[in-house]
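Handout, section B. The chain below has 139 residues.
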Amino acid sequence: MNTDERVRLVLTGEHEVRTSEGAVLRFFLARGSLADAGLVWEHATDVEFQHAYELALFDPHGLDAQLLLPNPHRMQLALDALMGPGSFFWSDGADVSGVLTTNGKAPEECGFGLATVQSSTSTSTSADGDGDADAGGAG
């Protein structure tokens, strides 16, 4: 079994995925700095979401130099109470952020618009003083 066949067994290439447990997973990406007021959640496929999530695990400067170093600016937050069990937000800390909802709704429908993210991110980075907010979380 080659890599493409294995990926197709797990990922669907769709924006909305229904699970056997009845949950409806929806994937969203925001491409750009969280400080950008014009940033919006865009529909993403599970494949796009997974690829961006995996890239966010590594330091982008290290990737440019072909080194796999952990990304010290990455953050991840569990959002179970807002968007259903297993929902979460992540950001690479610079250029890409993502949200997985498990209740079939968009982030804005759950009260998690990008303005909410931007205000909480600016609060946590100003409290840190260095911008290295890491909330841990589940994924």
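Note. The first helix runs from residue 3 to 10. Compare this with the example in section A.
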